[in-house]
């Protein structure tokens, strides 16, 4: 049997980062920057007021209370070249450019709010409530390095430095194909021997959480030819394909039967529980990665977390390695088979304790849904006492 680490290493060696692409800012959320972005101008580009109030010369209000004539208003966006002369004030709004001569802003709350004349109750130091040009960014500064994952704040700064388009690695498009003659679409009646298909919903959602765009390609019955037809049709729109089911030792294993002979997808037994039968390789002219995951619902999800998630990160140009773990302390004893790395479904509490859920079967989807973590038990450990420190993958 292969180890989990060997299988992941092989996947990460095979999978490549997606080619960079220039896109509109609107579509950039969740993509990874493929260029370094510098600001063409300083931000703020000019000295401006941080408050609604009065632009003054600080020396004129040093002996507050004082009353000064108000020579005009400056709104945000006012581009006129304005000057505050000695012994005068101008009303100014937040974001408006500072007029020449003024070196402080008095917030309106410190005044009587006058429009022709204003009485100022408090003195203020030079620079009061002024946001200096370049305080945030100086012209030419890099605001985002290549490799940054673009979230809401990063989108904001791209717009803030005037970008309309950016060079990114796109979100990977991942097609999910479920195989099994027993599978019925949820929302349709179950015939005898059938179950409702669930893996594709879990996997598409997991793809999205991992930063990709997942598509359900529906159900393929247990027949290698229709599986290959469906795969061919889907390759056009896929950066990666995930299949579930059809990879173990049964008489009807369409994924293994269809992909095995290609020679580019290998099927292995990986020393883990759940998720032992695994297939991985590339298909088609473009060498699209295919993850052939086991059909048991818990097995396919755990396999996703361990193998597909790191691969999607690599495709996005993000640092990729084993799925991160945190430490926790067991609230009850655990058991694990010798020679396999176990991923026990568990509840991780805020106090750092972790309790396995009672049902650990790889078909027990409801038990998985009641868990929020996987406790990792190493290959050589068969029993873990209560109170032991363990590694946990938060879900
Ligand atoms: N003789 C052996 N039998 C099995 C072995 C083995 O080593 N020798 N391995 C077992 C393990 S471990 C796993 S895991 C499963 C993997 O089987 P397959 O990947 O071939 O999956 P299927 O047989 O198609 O399905 C397994 C199970 O999961 C249900 N299933 C499948 N797809 C879905 C879906 N999309 N939504 C919901 N449920 C699904 C399916 O009905 C089966 O109950 O093989 C063991 N057998
Ligand atoms: O290895 Mo299987 O995934 O236990 O059910």
Automatic annotation (TrEMBL):
GO molecular-function term, one example from the UniProt record: metal ion binding
Any Pfam family matching the protein: MoCF_biosynth
Domain MoaB/Mog: residue ranges: 175-314
GO biological process, one term: Mo-molybdopterin cofactor biosynthetic process
Catalytic activity field: adenylyl-molybdopterin + molybdate = Mo-molybdopterin + AMP + H(+)
Pathway: Cofactor biosynthesis; molybdopterin biosynthesis
Keywords for the protein's UniProt record, in alphabetical order: Magnesium, Metal-binding, Molybdenum, Molybdenum cofactor biosynthesis, Transferase
Cofactor(s) named in the record: Mg(2+)
One term under GO cellular component: cytosol
This enzyme's EC code(s): 2.10.1.1
Residues annotated as transmembrane: none
Family statement drawn from the similarity comment of this UniProt entry: Belongs to the MoeA family.
Reported function: Catalyzes the insertion of molybdate into adenylated molybdopterin with the concomitant release of AMP.
NCBIfam families per record: Glp_gephyrin (NF045515), molyb_syn (TIGR00177)
Protein name according to UniProt: Molybdopterin molybdenumtransferase
Originating organism: Streptosporangium carneum
Lineage: Bacteria, Bacillati, Actinomycetota, Actinomycetes, Streptosporangiales
């Amino acid at each position: 049997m292969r180890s989990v680490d060997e299988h992941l290493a092989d996947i990460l060696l095979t999978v490549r980062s997606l080619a960079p692409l220039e896109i509109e800012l609107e579509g950039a959320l969740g993509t990874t920057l493929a260029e370094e972005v510098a600001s063409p101008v300083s931000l703020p580009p000019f000295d401006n007021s941080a408050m609604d109030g009065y632009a003054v010369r600080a020396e004129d209000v040093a002996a507050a209370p004082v009353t000064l004539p108000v020579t005009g208003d400056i709104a945000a966006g006012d581009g006129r070249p304005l000057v505050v002369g000695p012994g005068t004030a101008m009303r100014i709004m937040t974001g408006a450019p500072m007029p020449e001569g003024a070196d402080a802003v008095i917030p309106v709350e410190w005044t009587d709010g006058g429009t022709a004349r204003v009485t100022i109750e408090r003195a203020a130091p030079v620079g009061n409530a002024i946001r200096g040009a370049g305080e945030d960014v100086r012209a030419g500064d890099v605001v985002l390095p290549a490799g940054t994952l673009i979230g809401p704040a990063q989108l904001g700064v791209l717009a803030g430095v005037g970008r309309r388009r950016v060079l990114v690695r796109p979100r990977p498009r991942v097609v999910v194909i479920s195989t099994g003659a027993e599978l019925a679409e949820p929302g349709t009646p179950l015939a005898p021997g059938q179950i409702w298909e669930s893996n594709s919903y879990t996997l598409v959602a997991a793809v999205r959480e991992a930063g990709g765009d997942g598509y359900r390609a529906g159900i393929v019955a247990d027949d290698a030819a229709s599986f290959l037809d469906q795969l061919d049709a889907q390759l056009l729109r896929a950066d990666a394909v995930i299949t579930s089911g059809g990879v173990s030792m049964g008489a009807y294993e369409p994924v293994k039967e269809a992909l095995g002979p290609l020679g580019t997808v290998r099927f292995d037994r990986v020393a883990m529980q759940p998720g032992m039968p695994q297939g991985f390789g590339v298909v088609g002219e473009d060498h699209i990665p295919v993850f052939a995951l086991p059909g048991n619902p818990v097995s396919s999800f755990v396999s996703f977390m361990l193998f597909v998630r790191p691969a999607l990160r690599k495709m996005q140009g993000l640092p990729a390695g084993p799925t991160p773990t945190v430490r926790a302390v067991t609230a009850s004893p655990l058991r694990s088979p010798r020679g396999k790395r176990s991923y026990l479904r568990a509840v991780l509490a805020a106090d750092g304790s972790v309790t396995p859920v009672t049902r650990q079967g790889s078909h027990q989807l409801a038990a998985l849904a009641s868990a929020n973590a996987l406790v990792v038990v190493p290959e050589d450990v068969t029993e873990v006492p209560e109170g032991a420190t363990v590694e946990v993958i938060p879900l």
